[in-house]
Write a structure and sequence with these properties.
This protein is an alpha/beta fold. It has 2 domains: 298 residues, Beta-lactamase, CATH 3.40.710; 163 residues. It is 30% helix and 15% strand. The strands form 3 sheets. The protein has a 5-stranded antiparallel beta sheet with strand order 2-1-12-11-10, sandwiched between helices. A 5-stranded mixed beta sheet has the order 8-6-4-3-9, covered by helices on one side. Strand 10 and strand 11 form a beta hairpin. Helix 3 runs parallel beside helix 8. Keywords: Carboxypeptidase, Hydrolase, Protease. InterPro entries: Beta-lactam/transpept-like, Peptidase_S13.
């Protein structure tokens, strides 16, 4: 999660404020449709076909009079046309002149930045792009790409109830899903897709079929993750504030007490909290079957968990897909979910399910994606640690890999980028006159620590050219208006003809 201690945007002028909700709703329809249009092979790029000259006022910068039908009727389309390589590329000198006017620190510190053309990779703007900087939550982009590459977007994690060696023993076994719900499974959801009440009900049915009549006991196996549950690189104050919590391979609501509350302290033993919720659900399901559950949950000692290959699985529930979880972690910037996904990616490539394993696994996947990582230093995979060092060029490389790289699995990360003025951590930004032209068009991952602010993402400019960018500010004055500087800069890209 980003630490949002910086002040909000300036008030919106009256006429703009009255018209902005309708404009943003319209832009949301267009913006949410972009990934579907971009998915037309290959990636963002349509085949190199001849194109008409760009209109003076591009369609995606206009409020449509009507929404196009989606029923395949003659003369209609079922989505956006793919982008084309013939759209004009911004002229670097003209673009730099505009960006240098907006990308200025308010007080202490400085910004670095890189803008590239997504199709050709041409660098259009470069201000100390290779300088290693603290990326804050822009680190999540690296983890998202690594997870999609290592696990694949369709992978799911299973939480299982396994029969113990003693009659009536039920072992709740964590498989990496930290988005469990306490109630019944919600197939259409991401948070709560796998429900412990459903797992309990299926477990009781399996035990009843086996003719079990002894009191049931619940044990917890959370041995999938190893090493310290807390990364020593994290500030204890951030842990106490609920920015993150000790990591376990199962948790309710991404280690939140209430799924509707996404700030404040988190459970310090999320695995045990989940196990206690499962035990309660098991007890409720057992009564109608004439079974009882012994109060309390016992953690399986380290090294004493049953062999996964030989254990009898009584029941299991499966998480949302990795692609859906990546979408959620990018949109909400949840540190806990990101760290869990990083550990699961590490396990998938033979690394340990630990802090160190997650870092090593992410770096390995980035190398496979040909990211220049010689100067990259990673202390965690969520960006909460101040010891992380990443350059704007490295972040742009990852954004470009997601938007138009050679691995189509990474395309699953596109929809997770927050949309300016509309969704996720950009939902309350781009609401004043200085940034409104980026509203609904800029898609970018945010990053905020006390003296750090970053923004990396992609945008289709006014000429129809897909641009990828990263801007990182370090050493900034806490509470200054640097977030506005970033938003104004990204808005320049959205409105740029720049020729």
């Amino acid at each position: 999660m980003n630490r949002t201690s910086l002040p909000g945007a300036n008030p919106v002028p009256g006429p703009l404020r009255r018209g902005l909700p309708l404009l943003l709703q319209t832009l949301l329809v267009v913006a949410l449709a972009l990934p579907a249009g971009f998915a037309v092979a290959p990636a963002f790029l349509g085949p190199g076909s001849a194109a008409n000259p760009a209109p003076a006022a591009p369609a995606w910068h206009q409020i449509p009079g009507t929404l196009a039908p989606r029923d395949g009727a003659p003369g209609t389309t079922d989505g956006l046309e793919p982008l084309t390589a013939t759209a004009p590329v911004p002229e670097p000198g003209h673009l730099a002149a505009q960006l240098n006017e907006t990308l200025k620190a308010d007080g202490a510190g400085s910004f670095t930045g890189v803008v590239q053309d997504a199709i050709t990779g041409e660098v259009l703007f470069d201000r100390s792009g290779d300088a290693a900087r603290v990326p804050a939550s822009n680190m999540k982009l690296l983890t998202a790409a690594a997870a999609l590459h290592a696990l694949g977007p369709e992978r799911r994690f299973s939480t299982r109830a396994v029969a113990g060696s003693v009659p009536g023993a039920v072992i709740l076994t964590g498989g990496g899903d930290v988005l469990l719900g306490a109630g019944e499974s919600l197939p259409g959801a991401v948070l709560g897709r796998a429900g412990l009440a459903s797992l309990a009900q299926s477990t009781i049915r399996a035990l009843a079929d086996d003719g079990v009549s002894v009191p049931l006991t619940v044990l917890l196996d959370d041995s999938l993750f190893t090493g310290p549950a807390l990364n020593p690189a994290w500030n204890p104050e951030d842990v106490a504030a609920g920015e993150v919590a000790p990591l376990f391979p199962l948790a309710l609501n991404s280690a939140r007490f209430d799924p509707a509350t996404t700030t404040g302290p988190r459970p310090q033993d999320a695995a045990m909290s989940a196990a206690e919720a499962f035990a309660a659900a098991l007890s409720a399901a057992a009564a109608p079957a004439g079974l009882t559950v012994t109060p309390g949950v016992t953690r399986v000692p380290a090294g004493a968990a049953p062999d996964a290959a030989g254990a009898r699985v009584l029941a299991e529930v499966q998480s949302a897909t990795v692609g859906q979880q990546v979408d959620l972690l990018l949109r909400t910037s949840d540190n806990y979910l990101t760290e869990a996904i990083g550990r699961m990616a590490a396990l998938a490539v033979g690394k340990a399910g630990s802090n160190e394993g997650a870092v090593a696994g992410v770096l390995q996947q980035l190398e496979e994606l040909n990211m220049p990582a010689a100067t990259l230093r990673a202390a965690d995979v969520s960006g909460l640690a101040l010891a992380n060092q990443v350059s704007a060029r490295q972040l742009v490389h990852v954004v470009r890999a997601i938007t138009s790289g050679t691995d189509p699995r990474l395309r699953a990360g596109l929809a997770g980028f927050p949309i300016a003025g509309l969704t996720g951590t950009l939902g309350d930004r781009y609401t004043d006159a200085a940034t409104a032209r980026g509203a609904g068009l800029v898609r970018a991952k945010t990053g905020t620590l006390n003296t750090v602010i970053a923004l990396s993402g992609y945008v289709v400019d006014a000429d129809g050219r897909l641009l990828v960018f990263s801007f990182i500010g370090n050493g900034l004055t806490p509470g200054a208006a640097n977030r506005t500087a970033l938003d104004r800069t990204a808005s320049v890209l959205a409105g740029c003809g720049c020729r």
